[in-house]
Structure formats: structure tokens, C-alpha cells
Amino acid sequence: MKIEVKVVVCDWGVFINDELSKDLIFNSKENAKEVKRIMELDNAHISVARSTTAINITKSEEYMLNQFRKIPYIDVGIVDYSGAVPQVLISNENRLVDAYLNLGLVEVTDEN
Known about the structure:
29% of the residues lie in helices and 26% in strands.
């Protein structure tokens, strides 16, 4: 099965064997590519392992996290605490922290 993502007017479509699937048209190219990736994994009988362990937090911690999510200049990063002064190694501006935490979801693309 050949699966491709192509432009459809001003949206993005998932084409299966050169035919547009009318139910797989997206506003976002990234969403269309993610559906394509999942379809390819499914075709290969591969599933991505996901954490099913719950992370328990209090109501006040939930409130704090939700407030942080609303602030555009606060983000997640990977910090090295081994020295006297903590150093931010990777911020999440380009989703690198997400990639670090979810290696099974990473799809390497060209530099452009």
C-alpha cells in the first residue's frame, strides 16, 4: 500500500494508492503526516509503546501547570544539574524535549 500526503486545494490529504481518501483531509500538514505515519506503522503491524502509568498530582499542582501552559514565554526544557550552575541543554521550542521523551514517535526529516 502506497500512502502519501499531498496538497488538496488549501488543505492536506492522505492519498492511498494514488487516491484521495475523502475522510482523511486535514487543515494541517503535520496532522496529515501523523495519520500517514500511524497508517504505515499499522501496515507493518507495529504499535508505538505508550506510557500507561498515571502521574498523580494535586488540584493545586494541576492549577499551577494549567497557568504555566497559558504563558507564551514559559516552556519545557532539559537541564543539566551536574555543575554548580544548572544549564539548559535543550528547550522545547522545536519539540526536541517531546522527541527526547517519546523516541518512538520521532520521524526524522531533512533540514529544510
